[in-house]
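Protein modeling request. Please complete all fields; requests missing the sequence field cannot be processed.
Requester role: graduate student
Desired output: 3D structure, token encoding
Chains: 1
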Amino acid sequence: MKSPDKNQFEQNAHAFNKKLAIFVGADILLLVIATIAFVVVLTKSSDLSSQAQDVISAQEDEKKPNSNTTIEQDNQGLDIIQKDDDESGITDQDPPKTPATEKPNVDTPVISTPKPVTKPETKPGTTPSQTPTTPTKPTTTPSEPEVVTPPADVNNDFRKSLESKYGIKIAYGNELAGYKPKNKSTTPLTDVVQIRTQLNTLDSALAKYPAGFFAEPTETKLTFYFVKSVEDNAFAGLTDHEFGDDVKITLAVNSGFSAYTIHHEIMHWIDFIMSVKAYPTDIYASYQLLNPSDFTYGQINSSLSYYKNAPIPYFMTDYAQTNVLEDRAETFSMMIGRSYALHGMFDQGSVLREKAKIISTQISQYFKTAPAGGNYTWNQFIK
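Delivered output (383 residues):
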């Protein structure tokens, strides 16, 4: 027979074991449930990761350029411009732009906006293009830079015809840049209307000379140079034979040159040609013998000038008294430039008539194109 204490102890132990079994069974059940839940969660997570990877791959496929597409991107986003492989629209002046793709975090199914792509460097000498507002497709290959050509010389054909007709050269504008007649600066004549007017004036003046007259001295060419003005208004016309093979006659529009000026300067050219041919003969000696015995060139005496109402004129103007060359040039310009003689200018027995006859005789002597006895304009008042 068991004692009461021992019996009570066994009962308590049995109750404890029963409770322990219940607790252990509950723990096992909870562990099983937790394991099942973990497996379920793990499976769901794997599915979500797979879905996220699919979404990311799809996005990257959309962003990849195909073989016929070039992507341009600015600070505001992406602009896609279609380029045909066979087109030459991409040149050194317009380099293609390549986007930089930022790969999103593979652990998170979030689509992130791509970062702005750094623009290609602009080549020296080019201007960066402005941000386009609408994608455009070039349709033509950029052309070469347009070459700006100066406007055509509308007077050139007429000028060339006069050069051919008279055997001379004609210059205007900047064609004789650097040339300083009498060491004076000039302002170029560029106005096409004024140039045409002077060409017409020159044509009318030269038409009064025999055919081939200016082309005869083959060793020397004659150039007419039109300018707008001369420094200090130094002259209206000037004949420069410093370089004997190229005599230049400069005519200044603003100084008021006229047909008389042209004939005056041509006489300087004629004298130059004749003096070279006649050397060592002095072609001016006989001419100067007609002046008063007490006269010296350079000492102006207006009482001897025709245009100063001289009772017996020896000179056309006061300027003719400067030197023998100016004397002859002033006389000749009236011989050929006037359409009629003023009273007393070339009257029979007058000094001016005798001076005119010497000039006419000498021209026929030294120019084959103007033989003696010809009907020349410069002889119209002395026949």
